[in-house]
Amino acid sequence: MLEKLKHTVYKANLDLVENGLVIRTWGNASGRDKESGLIVIKPSGVSYDFMRPEDMVVIDQEGKVVEGKYRPSTDAPTHLLLYRTYTSLGGVVHTHSSYATSWAQAGKAIPPFGTTHADHFYGEVPCTRLLTQKETENDYEINTGKIIIEKLAEIDPLIVPSVLVNGHGPFCWGIDTENAVYNAVALEEIARIAFYTVLLGKTEPISQFLLDKHFKRKHGNDAYYGQNDDKI
Ligand SMILES: [Zn+2]
User: Fold this and answer.
1) Which residues on neighbouring strands pair with residue 93, listed in sequence order?
2) How far is the centre of ligand 1, averaged over its atoms, from the C-alpha of 28 (Å)?
3) Left, alpha or beta for 172 (phi > 0: left; psi -120 to 50: alpha)?
4) Domains of the chain, first to last
5) 96 alpha carbon – ligand 1 mean position (Å)
6) Could you read off the pLDDT of 61-99 as tens digits, one per residue?
7) What is the Å distance from ligand 1's center to 75 Cα?
């Protein structure tokens, strides 16, 4: 079942490695089938060298395995909570990519320092609060999802398609799995540029009007960047 989505999710996991966002098995990607609502996710701890499309695990919205011989990624409860909360999401990606994770470990949101940021994120990339000891010891992965949602609050997740989990790393998402990977790559690059921007002494973000200009020319009804099918 869902062979096409399994292949997409399999390839997304390899793309994270190819883009330098994931080493070993330190990341995971998933996708949601729009018709059935079922989620396809990477199996837990299976080496990328041996992983195949058919090894992807199909789970329902509650996390019950519908098909697959492996256990789903341990981060599956976080992915599921994001899917359940935001119906617009079709893909979720989690990595420990170096620069985004550095900001997460510092407990700092990434300010929009320039137009590269504004092309992808409409405002700062937020950083969650730390989990309490109780939240860490019980239902850790669900609570990770909860603090992401708590941080996003009223923000449309598709205009800020990533959040940094404090002391941990980034979760990224998109309208589908490929879009979530794209956003994870964009996040790592803007996290890298922002790191050097801070080193050079800048602390203030760009103006709201420049942020508006760059985000809105690529996203939404008035977008005019690229060709008609290139607005994401
Ligand atoms: Zn992690």
Assistant:
1) 29, 172
2) 9
3) beta
4) 3-102+125-189 (3.40.225.10)
5) 6
6) 999 999 999 999 999 999 999 999 999 999 999 999 999
7) 7
